[in-house]
Amino acid sequence: MPDRPSDPTTPTWPLTDGLALRDALLAAYAEPTRGYHDERHLAEVLDRLAELASSGATFDRTSVVLAAWFHDAVYDGERDAEERSAAWAEEALPGLVDAATVAEVARLVRLTESHRPEEGDANGCALSDADLGVLAAPEARYDEYVAAVRTEYAHLPDEVFAAGRADVLRELTSKPRLFHTAFALAHWEEPARRNVERELSVLAA
Fold first, then answer.
1. Which is it for the CA torsion 158, 161, 164, 165, positive or negative?
2. H-only helix segments in the chain
3. Dihedral angle at the C-alpha atoms of 142, 127, 162, 143, nearest 10 degrees?
4. pLDDT tens-digit profile of 76-95?
5. Which of 14, 54, 115, 126 has the most Cβ atoms closer than 10 angstroms to its Cβ?
6. How far is the C-alpha of 123 from the C-alpha of 13, rounded, in Å?
7. First CA to last CA across the chain, in angstroms?
8. What domains lie within the chain, and their CATH numbers?
9. What is the pTM (predicted TM-score) of this model?
């Protein structure tokens, strides 16, 4: 069984070894500059992957869970954070998993930049849905998420942040659908679009 840290709230590492890597990743998610993209976000993504699996979604658990651990391993507000996170996976995972898994983890991490998996990409659909699942959160949690994201861009004036944030949300909602797995499409699509439209109306005010 994968080793579990003593703190039961700590996300579960999917491998039986590589504990130093796990700790380095946890340290990265715990960086004080992070507002939303922190250990709580990682735990929520992993929880949503488990929810998707229990609802019948099929995907390679090891590759997707490892990709979840790495997908925001580097997060500093720069546009190439996903690429640097994928590069970290490519550097750190050989010797812990086979080469095909390393390549798949890196591919999935890079996919989280666009959240546009192909329909037949079961792994990509699962990770993308789990990562975007916060959009469908209850209103209070969604507002908390929005406020946490704002802290990560505290250096930007309100009007600059609002314009950039609105662009991101419009790009997401321009997709024919936000979610790709059957469960997420049925349960998360409508509340997510409702939350996003509400936020856009606030940003435009």
1. negative
2. 19-29, 39-54, 61-70, 81-92, 99-111, 122-132, 139-152, 158-173, 182-187, 189-204
3. 10
4. 877 799 999 999 999 999 99
5. 126
6. 18
7. 51
8. 19-204 (1.10.3210.10)
9. 0.93
What are the tokens at 27?
């340290």
**Separation between Cα atoms, residue 111 and residue 95, nearest integer Å:** 23
Flag residues of the chain having pLDDT under 70: 1-9
CB atoms within 10 A of CB 105: 30
* Bridge partners, 94 (sequence order): 97
Are the C-beta atoms of residues 103 and 162 closer than 8 Å to each other?
A: no
* Burial (Cβ within 10 Å: 0-12, 13-18, ≥19) of residue 107: middle
> Do the Cβ atoms of 63 and 101 come closer than 8 Å?
yes
Q: Is 59 exposed, middle or buried (0-12, 13-18, 19+ CB in 10 A)?
A: buried
Yes or no: say if 116 and 175 are a contact pair by the CB < 8 Å rule: yes
pLDDT at 149: 94
As a whole number of angstroms, the distance between CA 183 and CA 53 comes to 10
Q: Phi, psi (5° rounding) for residue 180?
A: -125, -30
